[in-house]
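Example 3.2
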Amino acid sequence: MDINSEILTTLGVTAVALALFVFEWLPPDIIALMVMVALMVLGLVTPGEGIAGFSNSAVITVMAMFILSEGIDRSGALQRASYWLSKWGGKTTRRQIFALGLIVGPISGLINNTAVVSVFLPIIEDFCQQHRISPSKLMIPLSFLTVLGGMLTVVGTSTSILASGLSEQLGYGTFSLFQFSALGLLTFIAGLLFLTFAGPFLLPNREVPGNSLSQEYGLKDYVSEVVVTPRSSLVGQTLKSSQLQRRFDLDVLEIIRNDNHFPQPLGDKPLCAGDILLVRGGRQDLLKIRDGEGIEILPDVQFGQKSWQADLSSDQEGVAEAMVVANSNVVGSTLKDLRFRQRYNVTVLAIRRGQELVRDRLGKLTLKFGDLLLVQGPKQSLLGLQTSRDLLVLEQTELEGLRFDRANIAVGIGLAVVAVAAFTSIDILVSSLAGVVLMILTGCLKPGELYESVRWDVIFLLACLIPLGTAMETSGATAWLAQQLIGIGGSLSGYGLLTMLYVLTSLLTNILSNSASVILLLPVGVKVATELGINPFAVMFIVTFAASNAFMTPIGYQTNTMVYTAGGYRFLDFFRIGAPLSLLLALMTPPLVIWLYGI
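Structure, written as tokens:
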């Protein structure tokens, strides 16, 4: 097949999109939106085809599953799993990983795995503290096992729902709910056994540097006590009027006056001679304030001799770690832009991003998904953070907002949605939307929470990439790529060809999004299958599973990004355990597909 200008243009747009995805210059959903607009401007798709993704049944189903997952989450049903982990976890890492898999795997087959990880992160943190083990032994297994468990049913991941929608567009109908459950179960068991027996050796044992968060974040040189002298220009001024926290890179955490501790908010409190201020800031800024404002720096706060709670916590004050979640409103903004202290009434002491630890110039750092913020403030404000949709507090506590009296109803609705789709002729799109309505009518979700629960970044990513698949098909780019693959692997056996497709998809999904990999490669794979007389479902299942199982990098899957910082991992830690797991699945999935579905 000859290549023409339309094919070249489509492939050019695709190549630019791939480069943007790889280098992460922009968020994936914004890149997808740019792709959609470019395709319409270049005339590769009509305006109707360009926006068709927003009415696509797969996209609407993904949206409904987000809402159903949120209803179950807000009911507190998943929090009960902490009891199961404590009961079954035991004292060895092998048993803990195995118990974790038995709990989160089946749940992830029915509930969005990002929601599952969000709930279990605080549970794992609490479990590790109680058993004095490193979180790095369990955080990667948590992510990997939810990804594997998500392939137990079609609704477990947005990737498989999208693949089902593409199958329908290609003329093969949607996948039934349990169409590849046998394959999903076998790969889940293989992954669980691998992580159980190989995990303790391949996972790092990142010991916490001390018994307190101050030592873990290295705050010894960044938290100090200063005293306001009688000659200080600050006497009689408030923190707000003095603009102390605006002019210098520091935060006043507490004012101590005659052994009385005054917590946040402190902006309108007049300062007096003799006041002791507990501040976060670097030495250079403190020296500038000493010279310019007339304060004295007291000897270093002795973190080694006192606990962090004694330094910054009391009956009213507390500290916590809070993660920036995907689809958060704070992503892309700085603490200064957000007026973070005023908005949440807590102070950020440090920010951990992967291996990087930031302790100064915090107000100028642009926040990203997965950032871990060490915050200090009134306990009521920390409780407010736990109900925020923008931040995930890594502390296992009872949340006031959970509706435990609706737990059985929410779980029942979720199971009913699955049962109706599995055992009747009603489509999963219809049953899931009916489940959304029931979540509202039964009080499991409030009407306003319905919109908050949708991961709009995922919805835009899916809807805006679907026109790319349309352009690939109508321009002939899909057929051209299929011919190139046939030329490379046409002489291979069925097993060899499926393995080649699995490896290609797996490599692509570890540097792109899983959705982009499915949209690009599933139609190409089906075209190859029809040309070579191979079962198209075998190819579709191979591409779907390979696109979902992204284990080799912390950016390959959103759950990997969530545990990256929380587990204290380095980038290569994912490759060390993810590469052999990916190799195992690449070797076993093709023969399992041939055995279960034929070729």
